[in-house]
Amino acid sequence: MNRNNDINQLLNGIDPLSLRINLFKQGVFDFIVEGIAANSENDFEIGEEASHEKQRRALEILSDNEHDEFLYGGAAGGAKSWTGACWLIFSCLAYPDTNWFIARNQLKDLLDSVLKTINKVCKEYGITGYNFNAQKNYIKFENGSVINFIEVKYKPSDPMYEDLGSTEYTGGWIEEIGEVHEMAAIVLGTRIGRHLNSKYGLKKKMFMTCNPKQNWGKIKFYDKHKNGTLYEENKILMDNGRKRIQRIYLNCLVVENPFIEQDYIDGLMAKALDHKPTFERLFKGNWDYEDNPYQLAEQEMIEAIYNNDHVAQKTGKSFITADIAGQGSDKAVIGYWEGWNLVEIVEFDKSTASELINAIKVLRFKHRVPQHRVVVDADGLGWGVVSSIGAKSFKNNASAIRIGKEIPNYKNLQTQCLYLLADKINQGELYVSADLSTDQMQYINQELAQIQSKGDHDPEKKLECKGKAQIKQDIGRSPDYRDMIFMRIFFDLRKTISLETIWS
């Protein structure tokens, strides 16, 4: 209390905005994270009532010379937007002629949310020297600094985000990364740290915010933070001697925000009565709950697949399923099965047809798998593999297989297999005993969570699942593990065909 009184005496008669800018440059954030009376008789006065320590730490990270990428998330109401707006505004004011951006999946959402927050921050701190250009969607300050508002919605016609151009930025902020394709973040990451950073001694900085969601941000930041590997990975040197991108994650819960209204907290708590996943995600900051009504496999049952040892059938029939890819961005993934126990996985980031053929042959002879119990994705490169080894071919767009007298109501064979796989998972009938890394398990969990019905499904039409293009947008890669796993259903369906033939 004495410290604050002494500071307040010194502040009388000093231009409050100039003081705040100088404090920001020195890494003093009391005026942001502690209560203030911005329009008091003394113009600037530090309050006594509250301090937001998580927000203070976030601003320290945004101002340090160590980290390149920073994910600030964990729950609703953690002051993520206020933090981002304060950081960009005061960076603009402190460093003239710098160039920054705020990106979100859709521009409309960005303008409806963050622009309003920026205006609130400016009003709070008496900032008037700026204008918003509604035609070109940027804010320009009197000292020449600019904040650009960028839409980064995924376009199949521009998968590499070339439309983002070659603009050079000092730094930037991606809002709600759960909605944003990973490639957008990658491209924007190449554009920061290239505009007056050396002049002002500013570290390139990518700020990212989101609520918990099953997406690439979870894998790249949260999961590694949770298992304690994020820091260690940051310290590993690449072959060329340059450090990896320095990443950090910081969570903030609504109860850690002293400035949030109690009605808001009460509203989040009330959601526990209606929808547990929403409560777990938005109040408790639990990333392992997916708030998606279209998800077919229950999240808890997905995570249980590594413990379902009751499914193991070491004396049962064996199978091989292979999702084929070549030299593109997709993986080739091959699985060996004992019944519904996935025992071994072989994968290739890049591969040729001959390498894949050889890998399947090795698995066959190693585990004595009959040729007729090998199925290969026959699309693209896979057809050559099928013909070379005499495997069964899986065609995603083939008609669904009739079970008994029931007429299948699925768009195609792939959809049928996905629905039936989700049933297997929910019944605890899938076991993955393969020796996998933590990353591999996280990838599998995320991809199985992408088994979702199409959100706009017409009840008059056949059932349809979320398409691969949308999945790639949401998680930043092809669901190659999922595709290898769901093809195991193919043999169960063929068994029903054989039985129908016997009984007819």
Number of strands: 16
CATH top-level class of the largest domain: Alpha Beta
Instruction: Enumerate the spans where pLDDT stays under 50 for 5 or more consecutive residues.
Output: 36-48, 498-504
Overall average residue pLDDT: 83
For the record, the count of structural domains works out to 3
Range of helix content: 40-55%
Largest sheet: 8 strands, mixed
Whole-number radius of gyration?
A: 27 Å
Strands ordered across the widest β-sheet: 5-6-7-4-8-9-3-10
Query: How is the CATH topology of the largest domain named?
Result: Rossmann fold
CATH-assigned homologous superfamily of the largest domain: P-loop containing nucleotide triphosphate hydrolases
* Total count of helical runs of at least 4 residues: 20
The name of the CATH architecture of the largest domain is: 3-Layer(aba) Sandwich
Shape: elongated
Separation of the first and last Cα atoms: 88 Å
Category from helices, strands and their pairing: alpha/beta
Strand content: 15-25%
List the keywords.
alpha/beta; Rossmann fold; Nucleotidyltransferase, domain 5; 6-stranded mixed beta sheet; 504 residues
